[in-house]
Amino acid sequence: MAAKHFFTDPTHLVSSALRSVTLTNPGVALDAENKIIYRRPGHAPQVSLVSGGGSGHEPSFAAFVGAGLLTAAVAGTIFASPSAVQIRQAILRRVDGDRGVCVVIMNYTVGGVCLGATRGHWVDCD
Length: 126
Description:
By secondary structure, the chain is of the alpha/beta class. Helix content is about 30%, strand content about 15%.
């Protein structure tokens, strides 16, 4: 029977897609363990913008990392949001927080719960 997909191993699909983003955009780097695409150091200081979501069709949030856009994107597995631990790693280790960090929460329940779980611990929301 012929294969119906472009990939051979679904367990590596998300990590392969994220690695490919770094090949096509040299301005970003990958934290493979936490599935975080982030801007490489050296850009002008700014408020860091972090978002993320599941990887249903592709890790789409990763495409929004760059100048004037997101500072980091955190990918979940296929059809699942990233964990609060992954998001904390992005905030604490992969973006510059000197000017502040804004976590952009998408308008869907699971994403809001996981991303929102980091709010009170890492970002002053007053």
